[in-house]
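Submission sheet (multi-component)
Chains listed below:
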Amino acid sequence: MAAAIDFYFDFSSPYGYLAATKVDALAARHGRTVAWRPMLLGVAFKTTGGQPLPMVPLKGDYSRHDFIRSARFHGIPYRQPTTFPISGVTPTRAFYWQQGSDPAKEVALAQALLRAYFTEDVNISSVDGVLAVAATLGIDADALTAGINDPAIKDRTRAEVEAAIARGVFGSPFMVVDGEPFWGMDRLDQMERWLATGGF
Amino acid sequence: MAAAIDFYFDFSSPYGYLAATKVDALAARHGRTVAWRPMLLGVAFKTTGGQPLPMVPLKGDYSRHDFIRSARFHGIPYRQPTTFPISGVTPTRAFYWQQGSDPAKEVALAQALLRAYFTEDVNISSVDGVLAVAATLGIDADALTAGINDPAIKDRTRAEVEAAIARGVFGSPFMVVDGEPFWGMDRLDQMERWLATGGF
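Outcome: structure written.
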């Protein structure tokens, strides 16, 4: 069986959200599954010297315009969050806890968190925000709260983020297909041809 | 008559080169012309705090790979230049001199310079490199050399670059259609739909 596509994203990344709405169906068209791997852009920025897009002069103004236009272009619901960007630490820990607890729900949780942040203005950087979203999936609030605060989950999150950066992941979304890296919502087209042809 | 599309690019930018091979035909499909406006990314970086892609940790390695893969994806000839990046000052001055001298040849000169740098490894940051390319278009070497060194052309170049940045141009390529900005080779698809529909 062909290897899963690694899908790296930050919960605060608009382009990560846009790609998240497409990546599973794209992979399925080519007989692939997707390994969802939330990471933390802020940690990657320590290596690349980058900073969040909205804070970069000129580029920030353009980006705020482009997030919304790109969502319209791709036909994806989008509402610019009031608080932006946010820390992805809490939802990322929630994801890795869910993975260890019930992996069948990990992708649904990630998708619900992204949708809540980018279409309903729920601030998912807070534990309360994450719990509210998780409740819609029937995830137990006490167990999830304990998971988010579990030192083992914190270590797991840190290890995942470090492994991503060690692999060269510096942006969101960032996909890896059989070792071939694709950065950005803009590279889903190249990734799809790569999957269809085995490389070009 | 509909306004021209402003096409900003840096002579050292691989994605600028890739877009330059497509932009005139794309515009023509929608009854538009293109105003070519070479600029200097290095000056924009003073505003944005950016730096050339190849010098950014992680992103640099990815970008060198992506330049070549993107050229293959779009079916555009590409050979990674030995000296990269380069200063675009000399070819940019040559362009604006040519514009004042014989505007019918300005686009042909820009295209020939980009093609020489990105497919034949000609270092177009030097006057000799620019003259060699210009000679293939029958442009007089003495007149062009004088133009590149003309203080009025230097002022013109500086003014064009400053006007671009004042307008919010921070990357290459960067297109503006009736006030709507599109950054990157990756936005030609959105620009084309914008031209076809008058906005979306």
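Remark: The domain at 5-197 of chain A is CATH 3.40.30.10 (Glutaredoxin).
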